[in-house]
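Meet today's protein:

…
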Amino acid sequence: MKTKFFMTLVLVLMGMCSLQAQPGQGRRGPEFPSERLIKELKLTDAQVANIKKDNEELRAQMRASRENKEFSREDMKAMMDKMRAARDEIMKKNLTDEQYKAYVEFEKNNAKNRGPRPEGRGPQGNAPTE
């Protein structure tokens, strides 16, 4: 009985250690563009590569702004709004006009599906505008 308990405890601890040792499992967020977006917009491999490259640069800027504790909440909101607009520009630059229109619709539908945000969490509807 003690042996089974000890072995179970060892297995659980090993599992916990291996989960903590996983690289890149922090607050990364969902991959952009998502597989669903790629399929829905029928993106080419070149478009996906360009969007991912540009998006990584944007994510680095977002990370840097979040780490800067000197900004007020309003400053952070304004910066995030600018970065959302920058993401829209990335998409506009890399997509055809037809794909961009479909992207705008995709984002509007996603904003609706997310539902209302909890009180005090900022505006709803971060979908790009045409």
About this structure: Residues 21-27 have pLDDT under 50 and may be disordered.
